[in-house]
Amino acid sequence: MSFDGIVTRATASEIKKTLQSGKITKIYQPDKTDLLFTIRSGGKNQKLLLSANPSFSRVQLTAKSYDNPAVPPMFCMLLRKHMEGAVIESIEQIDLERIIHIKVKNRDEIGDIAYKTLIIEIMGRHSNIILVEDKNGTIIDCIKHIPPSLNRYRTLLPGQKYLSPPPQEKHSPLTESAEGFIQKIRWNEGKIDRQIVQLYSGISPQIAREITFRAGLATKETLSEAFTAMMEEFRNNRYAPQMSVSDGKEYFSVTALSHLKGERKDFDTAGELLDRFYYGKSERDRVKQQAADLEKMLHNEHDKIAKKIKKLNASLSDTEKADRFKVLGELLTSHLYLVKKGQKKIEVTNFYEEDQPKLEIPLDPLKGPSENAQAYFKKYTKLKNSVAYIEEQLEKAKEDLLYFESLIQQMESASVRDVAGIREELEEQGYVRRRKQQKAKKNEKPVLETYQSTDGITILVGKNNKQNDYLTFKASRQNETWLHTKDIPGSHVVIKSEEVSETALIEAAGLAAYFSKARHSGSVPVDYTLIRHVKKPSGAKPGFVIYDQQQTLYVTPDEDQLLKLKK
Fold it and tell me: How far is CA 139 from its chain centroid?
């Protein structure tokens, strides 16, 4: 896990410097494992994200916005009661563990000063966020309840005494000397990086590998020097937030990971690094949890249509035999005088071919000569008549396949809010059963993704078909520029200006390429034209349009560029 004790220390140092003595003004709970605090500090509103997500648990300052449920969960309501208006007294990491205590001061119901501590334990699937009453050490509540049946060592339930996680009995690397390091390592056993992880708290395998890599030719002296030099940086809170992309995988750290080969990106703060690294990951996880049934349905429907197209193409190939049956019928008619009832086949002269070869025609022995000929003519007529129907069905199936490909593509970058729009659309189309609606949403407008070009022009993006239709036909003016990937499922993008700079055009095209099926491709073709040249055919499915007078740009999708443009 990249979020080790060292990253926790860097984050704790950062939020302490930024939020100490700040006032908690708002608390939200975007989903069942995450909390978002707005804290007024240093004359600014800062956002603090606390996550107990099993895969993406973390603590960080964030610049991102999160969708919040219309009705706040119970734990959020409880935190608002106890912590809104409170002043942050202290923010401390416990030893070098992935545990942070945020102590706050507030007034209770009768106006007396009360101290409470919000404890964030970052432990993978065992992560938790716990509010504790300082005066007696009891748990007020926690984001995940852990009864004795799940953990005999400690119970995490309201009213129980808070007990810290069991100590790991490891040494602190920040106070270790070069001599102490040399003495503790079992040099003859090898696997030094594993030994470092086992001996010292807060150090992940990733950091241990970096230490051994920096040591170069590994000796007692070079390893101890690399170890103490890195710990000196951490002890003095000198960090270098960095993300590395190596062999298609992303890694993050608060020190340079020189042992990883690949692209590196530096960040000014740990919060910026974590915003970038976790961009879309936790949202994608939420979507998978809440829309697994929808994704399965979309893929099943897509596969079903693909099989139907295959069968229709096979049937269309069969219709090519129609002329063959016509020829057989005509040849048989010309040679009726040779046919006798009860025959299973007859050999005739095929005068349709230049050299007039002999041709054997299968017969039904139960039918007379004329009936056999008529049977071939009926097969010919049936196949000919079926061509138009098969072609019509094939065209419709291809449109349906394209439709579901677009929905699958939309799910890949959808937020929970976007998924709600996709589900609603499928309900209206009759593909999924309509859920019970809590409230009527007749006049609710789709919320569009907003970006801003580097020269200040607003760019809007539709993330599902409802948003696409709304953006193109209701939220845009006739002379604004519309973009879409050429012959590739993707989002509608509109530049909200009648005067478009080359910069805005290229950046908008990059957004269109990113929010498309070609997201991971290079040199993606993107068409652009004016809104007035975009039409929706009568009876077309949601999101489907036709357009003309377009020009085409070729761009490569860039996630970093997208993040810079996001408003």
Answer: 35
